[in-house]
Each structure stands twice: as C-alpha cells, then as structure tokens.
Amino acid sequence: MSSWAIVALVAIVIWGIVETVRARAGIVTDEDGNQKIAPRQVESNPAELEAARRELTELKERVKVLERIATDANTGEAREQARIAAEIEALRALPAAKKEEPDQ
C-alpha cells in the first residue's frame, strides 16, 4: 500500500470519528451548511414537570432570602439592631449571674 493510500485511509477514519462525535453531541448541519445543536425531545409526564417547577420556585425563594441576609447584615441599621440585641442578651444574663452569687 502506498503512502498516499495510507494518508487517505487515515483521513477517512478521522472524518468518521468526527462525524460520530458530532452525532452523539446532537450537532446537525442544515441545508445551508450551518451547524447547530438539534433540540432534544424530552419525554416526561406532567407530574414531573410540575414537581420541577415547584422545586425551581422554592429554590428561587431561598436564593432571595439568602441574598437579603447577605446584604442586610452589612447595613448600618442591621448593625444597630445586632448591637441592641447583644445588649438585651447581656442584660438577661445579669440577673441569672446575681442569683447564682448568693448560693456560692
């Protein structure tokens, strides 16, 4: 077999591998030669779709809450509220400490 025949055979094999990979990835070529990903047909029942929608809605709500917690904790008003809450907790701890002192 000549060297040109080997080159042609290797080129054909490589072309076949590339086309196989494209087919598995869902890449199709239209009549104009443009390559695009073919839409996949998802076969699922309405109950699964509704469950996925509910889960997505719940996750969006959780993200909103987390964003609010992350941003609100850095405001001046939130720091003031945290300081006041810490003072209240400190005052609540004082009578308990006074009650324990006579027992000692």
Secondary structure elements and their pairing?
Blueprint: H1 3-25, E1 27-29, E2 35-37, H2 46-72, H3 76-103
Antiparallel strand pairs: 1-2
Briefly say what this structure is.
This protein is mainly alpha-helical and 104 residues long.
Would you kindly provide a written description of the structure presented here, covering whatever features stand out?
The protein is mainly alpha-helical and 104 residues long. It has a domain at 3-37. It has 3 helices and 2 strands, in the order αββαα. Strands 1-2 form a two-stranded antiparallel sheet. β1 and β2 form a beta hairpin. The relative contact order is 0.04. The model has no long low-confidence stretch (mean pLDDT 83).
**Low-pLDDT segments, ≥5 res:** none
> Strand portion, in percent?
5-15%
| Protein structure class | mainly alpha
- State the shape: elongated
Number of strands: 2
User: What is the count of helical runs?
Assistant: 3
Strand sequence of the main sheet, in spatial order?
A: 1-2
Helix content: over 70%
Averaged pLDDT: 83
Main beta sheet: 2 strands, antiparallel
Order of helices and strands: HEEHH
Distance from N terminus to C terminus (CA atoms, Å) equals 103 Å
Descriptors:
104 residues, mainly alpha, elongated, 2 strands, two-stranded antiparallel ribbon, single chain, 3 helices
